[in-house]
Design brief:
single chain, 206 residues, alpha/beta, Rossmann fold, 5-stranded parallel sheet, globular
């Protein structure tokens, strides 16, 4: 895998990899490890928005119901991050940045303007049924903290609906651009991560 990582690093430069998937598909797990191995900065819109909701009741209400953040709020909170000085000169691994159809253009522009061009989009594929099973296991383990968007089954159902209706068109845009990398995410963490590395290596060598 070391040789693959070096190939990806050279190809990526200061660019970005954006990781998408249904709730509980492993976006942050994959993204954090990928960032560590690539010497990249990890940028999760979910983490940033969940921090921001403490100061914004509108945002807190939307996220707590399992809805995506309103686009204007998303743009005002997330897009400025690309230009932060602490990110300059580093590649980025993004976790679902720009989930609502129509946000992909501003995200790509903001990334490119900050010299973090989005070069690949990884889609971690699990079924909606698998997402539900993983939610059940997570509730038993209590391993997600006190996240408002994980508390009730109905909220998870809405998050899945939001993904299907609002995020899938975003993913289709990336597919048409030729930078989408679908990866089956139902195996072990090691298997899934190896598949992500293999897909990125193949794109880097294309």
């Amino acid at each position: 895998m070391e040789q693959q990582i070096e190939i990806i690093k050279k190809w990526l430069g200061t660019g970005s990899v954006n990781v998408f998937g249904l709730p509980f598909s492993g976006k942050d797990t994959v993204g954090i490890r990928l960032a560590e191995l690539l010497g990249a900065k990890f940028l999760s819109s979910g983490l940033i928005l969940r921090a921001a909701e403490k100061e914004d009741t509108t945002l807190a209400t939307e996220l707590g119901a399992g809805n995506l953040a309103p686009t204007e709020l998303f743009r005002s909170i997330i897009l400025p991050y690309f230009g932060r000085t602490e990110l300059a000169g580093s590649p980025l691994v993004l976790s679902s940045v720009g989930r609502w159809s129509g946000e992909e253009g501003p995200v790509m522009n903001a990334a490119a303007e900050a010299n973090h061009e989005i070069k690949a989009v990884v889609l971690l594929n699990i079924s909606e049924e698998e997402a539900q099973k993983r939610w059940d296991v997570s509730k038993t383990l209590g391993d997600r903290g006190d996240r408002s968007d994980d508390r009730e089954k109905t909220i998870l159902d809405n998050r899945i609906k939001e993904f299907r209706e609002k995020t899938m068109p975003v993913i289709e845009t990336y597919r048409q651009m030729g930078i989408l990398l679908p990866v089956q995410a139902t195996g072990s963490r090691e298997e899934v991560f190896a598949n992500v590395i293999a897909a990125l290596t193949k794109l880097a060598q294309a």
